[in-house]
Amino acid sequence: MVAVIDAPVTPSAAPRTAGAPMRAPAPPRPVGRAGRNAPPVRRWRGVVLGLAGLYFLGPVLVAFWFTVDGVDGPSLAAYTRIFTAAGFVDSMTSSLLLGLIAVAITLALMLPTMLLVHLRLPKARPYVEVFSLLPLVIPPVALVVGVRGVLGWGNGSEFVEVSAAFTALQNQSLPLVLALMYVVIALPFTYRSLDAGLRGSKVTVLVEAALNLGARWPTVLWRVVLPALRTSLLNAGFLAFALVMGEYTIAKILIFPTFPVWLAQSGATDGQLQVALALLSLAFTWALLLIVVAVAGRTRKAKP
After folding, report:
1. What's the confidence (pLDDT) of residue 103?
2. Using an 8 Å Cβ cutoff, are 129 and 187 in contact?
3. What's the half-sphere exposure (Cβ side, CA atoms, 13 Å) at 241?
4. Domain with 118 in it: what CATH number?
5. Domain presence at residue 101
6. What confidence category does residue 181 fall into, taking pLDDT thresholds of 50, 70 and 90?
7. What is the b/e burial string over 201-239, where b = at least 16 CB atoms within 10 angstroms of the residue's CB?
8. Short-list 15, 179, 157, CA closest to 94
9. DSSP states of 110-138 as a string?
10. What is the DSSP letter of 173?
11. Is 233 a domain residue?
12. What separation in angstroms does the CA of 303 have from each of 204, 219, 298?
């Protein structure tokens, strides 16, 4: 005879009727909202954000108060003197045109090169990367010294055409030689931005699919590549334009009256005007950055 021992039946050992689904064990309930032993992260989040905002916005607010502080009380006279200041319009126009020209040349040079490297010559990518990152290694002062030597040789050339071409590059109202130098300096930032865009958007797959469907290269570039790289192109253009609007060393050594040079010289006669222009430049840069972020966010939402 076999002795049968009666034992209490637990829920896990209870018999399951035929056809009934097996239920998973219920997860353990958390203790409290964030756990009893969890660190008070949310308590310090506001403190850290407040200190960061004070660190970044504090100098801006102090500078703004310096610009509006007058003898008879707060006044916006420093901001009203901007457009009537001698040399402001010419220097700002020159810097804006140089920025647009540098952005156009940089994108026209780097976009086809990066597409060719990613689509047809992947083995050449390390060489293109090294050449694009060289401006980070070469100091701007050394670059200016070399450019001045080339300009001196061109100005003293016996050929009239060469001398005329170098004279046109050094026009004081629009020094195109600065735009060419800014293209070289902006190469590292443009390369990184376009390379990240090409790797993240899978342009190779999109281009191959468009070509298999019978599209030609102009159509592929306009309808496939440019929409896929819209954010990267905006980032590259913004970085190059911001670099042009803030570059001082090269223009100062070559004695060209760009906006940063004029801004530095205006401080010797009117300190409030200089700080007011610096604040307006900061606001203009932030506005461009917000536009880039907004366009990039709209592009991400449009993707399925």
Report:
1. 93
2. no
3. 21
4. 1.10.3720.10
5. yes
6. very high
7. bebeebbeebeeeebeeeebbeebbeebbbbbbbbbbbb
8. 179
9. HHHHHHHHHHT-GGGHHHHHHHHHHHHHS
10. S
11. yes
12. 17, 20, 9
Q: What is the pLDDT of residue 296?
A: 67
- The whole-number average pLDDT for the span 56-62 is 87
pLDDT of 303 higher than 60:
no
Nearest CA to 247 out of 299, 196, 175 is that of 175
What total number of domains does the chain contain? 1
Would you state the structure tokens that stand for residue 27, as one six-digit string?
A: 């997860």
Q: What is the DSSP code string of 201-239?
A: HTHHHHHHHHHHTT--HHHHIIIIIHHHTHHHHHHHHHH
DSSP states of 12-67: TTSPPPTTPPPPPPPPPPPSSSS-TTS--HHHHHHHHHHHHHHHHHHHHHHHHHHH
Burial of 171-181, coded b for 16+ CB within 10 Å and e otherwise, reads: eeeebbbbbeb
Give residues with Cβ within 8 angstroms of 193, minimum separation 6. 232, 233, 235, 236, 239
Q: Tell me the pLDDT band of 101, cut-offs 50, 70 and 90.
A: very high
**DSSP helix/strand/coil, 264:** helix
Name the residue range of residue 273's domain.
Answer: 88-137+174-302
On whether residue 13 sits in a domain, the answer given is no
Rounded (5°) CA angle 182-88-282 = 65
What's the distance, Cα to Cα, between the start and end of the chain in Å? 71
User: What is the token pair recorded at 76?
Assistant: 């916006």
- Whether 97 is in a domain gets the answer yes
Q: How far apart are CA 215 and CA 235, in angstroms?
A: 28
Helix (H) or strand (E) holding 70: strand 69-70
